[in-house]
Amino acid sequence: MSEKILEVKNLKREFVMGEETVKALKGLSFTIHSGEFVTIMGHSGSGKTTLLNILGCLDRPTDGNYYLDGVNVEELDKNSLAELRNEKIGFVFQSYNLLPRTTALENVEMPMIYNKHIPSSERRDRALEALKTVNLLNRAHHMPNQLSGGQQQRVAIARALVSEPVIILADEATGNLDTRTSYEIISLMQDLNEKGKTIVFVTHEPDIAAFSQRTILLRDGLTQKDVINTEKRSAKKAIVSLPDPEKM
Amino acid sequence: MKIFDLLKISLKALKKSKLRTFLTMLGVIIGVAAVITMMAIGEGSKESIHTSLSGMGSNMINIMPVMNEPGSVRLQGSSMQTLKQEDADAIVNLNSPNIKGVSPIVSTSGQAINASNNWPTSLIGVSTDYLDIRQFKLKDGIVFSKEDVKSFTKVCLLGTTVVKNLFPDGQSPIGKIIRFNKIPFQVIGVLASKGQSNFGQDQDDVILAPYTTVQKRITATHYLQSIYVSAASEAQSDAATAEVKQVIRENHHLKASEDNDFDVRTQAELLSAIGSTTSMMTILLTAIAGISLFIGGIGIMNIMYTSVTERTREIGLRMSLGAKEKDILMQFLIEAVIISITGGVIGVVLGIASSKVVSIILHWPILISEMSILISFLVCGITGIFFGYYPAQKASRLDPIDALKYE
Predict the structure, then answer these.
(1) Helix, strand, coil % (nearest 5) of chain B?
(2) From the list B321, B400, B401, which residue is nearest A110 (CB)?
(3) A2 contacts A193 by C-beta, under 8 angstroms
(4) Mean pLDDT across chain A, nearest whole number?
(5) Rounded Cα gap, residues A138 and A128, in angstroms
(6) Closest CB from A58, A87, A116 relative to B400
(7) Which of B26, B84, B91, B198 shows the greatest Cβ crowding within 10 Å of its Cβ?
């Protein structure tokens, strides 16, 4: 088996709300290896978002261990967590979160500003390369409001790719998009996955899960199912099977 | 994260809301311009008073008689007879390096007559040092000599006001004979105009003659009304004063227990008294202007808080993509400092311009010191950091999870 990228052991997260203690995660354990495309599914209240925040190093578990690329996240302070997010994680959000009135290229360059290992002279070339990967080179100098939702999400994916993270964390990345555009984004993710990128995709749409290799199903803060998807669908084929919008 | 990147981010953010940035900056601009202008006016008037007082002879020491034992009747100083020729001589004989010139003063007023023209004026009997002590300059002719003083020659120097009134047709008075209280004097020189003194006195309405001549021919007295001494420099004024006091006390055989029977006043004392008044005025004006700069600073703080709130999502995004607390803090701090420093630069330019306008239109003396510009810049920088720090700190302490969800 390939190397472990992400490993959680007996992960717990509790929130104190006044006198009540809400147990969002009650002891999760799983491992994700390099090159996997995993979907994490669950209804609202299942602990999905809490898990994502912890996996994204934005939050820390109350108990249990989290290793990202061999680093014990628990031992890190705020600044080191910021560094870890910058260097090892590529975020893709539901609402794209591009800086307004800032070109696609500059949006993609942004995380590299905070990365001390990437010299400023390389930024532009790397950003252009990332935009090329998501097939948006011709839109590099467009502002977000001049781009469609799908294009904005592709810029966001380029931004996630640009620092060459060990993992891409997508949070409902297709939630704001129509079916066809969603499939296009998934197709792009599949391409990236085939090139070796590890992808963790959080979603509540069972439809999306069918395109991944493995699905972790959360329920009430526990793992309900962790299954390998033997019949992985190809997003490209799915797009072809959609009704042609020209004829609708 | 390099400072250049931060600058770029901050500039970009400021450019996105140009009007707001400008309005915020306006508070600083007005504050700084006001400080510069007020300091220029304050310093200018101080300087102008200093110059005109120095024009009277800033190193001048004036020795006047006072009644030692007044009893119940207090007489006017000039009617007292304690100050003598010997006192003046004693000061001269000191040969002190602190003392530059000594002139006994005997003055009287009366009517000056030239043919059919007459003019009421004062005749001041002086020695040859007087012109230098009072910083009078000769426009025409010559000054009487020490010989003239010794032999009480009836020669005189006229001030321009006297010339104008006695010689209205514009002919040169040099060599002419005028009469003062019926005594004839030959005019040998004309003084350059000095204009009004600080106290509104016409300094050109005067006739100067050897003090010996005035004593002998006009007042028929042997005492002096006062003695003018000039210190070698303003700094030596105090030393010269002390020496003068000492020698006159000895001359008057005063015991240690006795008070001076004379009074010594220096121009420097007057200068420092007036100087402190104008300094007070400058401080007051600057303080008022400083308040407007302070308000400008509050404006920055206000707008920075608004900006932080508006850009909560951006802050959350930057943090989740790897910006550290320090990076966010610096980003907003630099924004505040850019506003204040740019405002400061514009304010300094505007302040200099408005100072010039004040001097041109109102004819007020102004003085723009490098110090006031330097202080303004410093205060601006500090204002930016001080008022920008709290909003920036608020931004840097946001929780990325909450910030990203902020609507």
Answers:
(1) 55, 20, 25
(2) B321
(3) no
(4) 91
(5) 10
(6) A58
(7) B91
Alpha-carbon dihedral sign for residues A58, A64, A66, A71 = positive
Cβ–Cβ of B320/A56 closer than 8 Å?
A: yes
Question: Would you say B186 and B155 are in contact if contact means Cβ atoms under 8 Å apart?
Answer: yes
Whether the pLDDT of residue B70 is over 60: the answer is no
User: What residue in A sits closest to B326 (Cα-Cα)?
Assistant: A79
pTM reported for the whole predicted model: 0.73
| Residue closest to B65 by CA, chosen among B268, B251, B237, B271 | B251
Q: How far apart are CA B360 and CA B386, in angstroms?
A: 37
| A200 bridge partner residues | A38, A169
Q: Do B324 and A87 touch (CB under 8 A)?
A: no
Q: What is the phi/psi pair of residue B339, to 5°?
A: -60, -50
Using pLDDT thresholds of 50, 70 and 90, give the confidence band for residue B68: low
pLDDT tens figures, B125-184: 999 989 888 888 888 889 998 888 888 899 999 999 999 999 988 888 999 999 998 899
Residues in chain A: 248
**A199-203 β-sheet, strand order:** A89-92, A167-171, A199-203, A37-41, A214-219, A222-228
Chain A touched by B9 (CB under 8 Å): yes
Which chain A residues touch B324 with a CB distance below 8 Å? 78-79, 82-83, 114
Residue B370 has pLDDT above 80, yes or no: yes
Q: Are B335 and B307 in contact (CB under 8 A)?
A: yes
Q: Which amino acid is at A7?
A: E
Question: Cα dihedral sign for B59, B65, B69, B70?
Answer: negative
Chain B, residues 301-320, CB within 8 A of chain A, namely: 313-314, 317-320
DSSP string spanning B120-166?
Answer: EEEEEEE-TTHHHHHT--EEEE----HHHHHTT--EEEE-HHHHHHH
For residue B322, the model assigns a pLDDT of 92
Q: What is the pLDDT of residues A85-142, one digit of tens each?
A: 999 999 999 999 999 889 999 999 999 999 989 998 999 999 999 999 999 999 999 9
Q: In this structure, are residues A160 and A90 in contact, taking their beta carbons and an 8 Å threshold?
A: yes
Write out residues in chain A with pLDDT < 70, as ranges.
1, 245-248
* Cα Dmax for chain A: 58
Res. B260: pLDDT tops 90: no
Chain A residue numbers touching B4 (CB-CB < 8 A) = 120
d(CA B3, CA B15): 18
The C-alpha atoms of residue B286 and residue B34 are separated, in whole angstroms, by: 8
Residues 6+ apart with CB under 8 A from B254: B260, B261
